Amino acid sequence: MMWLSRMTGSVPLPATLFPEGTPLPEVVETFERMHAIWSRYLDDLADAGLERRFEYTTYTGERYADAVHNVLTQLFSHSSYHRGQIALLLRRIGAEPALTDFVFWTRRRVDGS
Question: What are the residue boundaries of the structural domains of the chain, listed by start?
């Protein structure tokens, strides 16, 4: 929601990046609402909109400018970083992390016969 707010101004900027103590049903509701808003935004996004630059203020008060395509790339790839962190923590306690490589879930075995 933070990036939607920064890029579009169509949703309020969340008061904090990492809210605490949110009841699970509210998390689910917020996720579903956010998913719907993102889906509409991406459905309406034209190629020219990817190049659009926008300015925003961070939670620490610093001002920046960036292009929409850079933020979308960040949002897409940032989860890989966290999956790696989680895998490392699981291995440290002796657990085997789940397979999270995208291609593992999309590939199909070719029958050799």
Answer: 2-106
